[in-house]
Prior knowledge:
Elements: H1 2-19, E1 29-34, E2 37-42, E3 47-55, E4 63-71, E5 77-83, E6 87-98, E7 101-106, E8 110-112, E9 117-120, E10 126-132, E11 141-148, E12 153-161, H2 170-173
Parallel strand pairs: 3-12
Antiparallel strand pairs: 1-2, 2-3, 3-4, 4-9, 4-10, 5-8, 5-11, 6-7, 6-10, 11-12
Copper (II) ion (CU) binds at residues 64, 93, 104, 126, 128.
Amino acid sequence: MNYFKTILAISAFTLISSCGTHAHDAPKAEETTQYKDRVVSFRNENIQLMNPFARKAKKGQNSAAFVKVINTDLKTQQIVAATSPVANIIELHTSTEENGVHKMRPVEAIDVPAGGVVELKSGGYHVMLIDLKHDLIAGQEIPVTFEMDNGNKIETTYSVKGCGCGCKGDKKKK
Ligand SMILES: [Cu+2]
C-alpha cells in the first residue's frame, strides 16, 4: 500500500516537473511516508507539505499549526492565507525575539522560494489558530487549508500534538 502511494507521488512529481504548467483541477492530497516523515503531495501543485501538526489547546484559546513547505517549482510561490474550521480567526504569523522578548505579528504572505523550503515552526512563521471552536486534543486530526498566490487551495490534515513540539512554554506546562 505504501509502495503504491509512493509510486503515485513520484509519478505526480514527474508530471509536474516535466510540464511545469498549472492545471485548474482542485488539487488532491496524496501522501507518502518516507522514513518517519509524512509527506503530502498535491496533484497539479508544485508544493509538498512535510509533517504538518498543530499544538493542543483548549476551546477559546489559541493554537498554532506548523509544517515544512517544499516548493518544487522554478519560481517563488506565496502562501497568502490559511483557513480551518477549528478556529474563529486564522492568521499567518511570524515570530521575532527583541531584547529577549518573544513577539508575534501577522504577515501578509509567506514566501516559499523557488526550489526551496520554508519551515513553519515555533519561533518562526506559523499559522495562528485564534479562538478555538473546540478543544484540540493530542492525537486528533484537523483540516488546514493554505491559499496560494496562484489562487489554488491546498488542504491536508494536521495531527494535534501535545508537548515536545519544541515550543516555548512546553516544559513549564507539561
Ligand atoms: Cu502567532
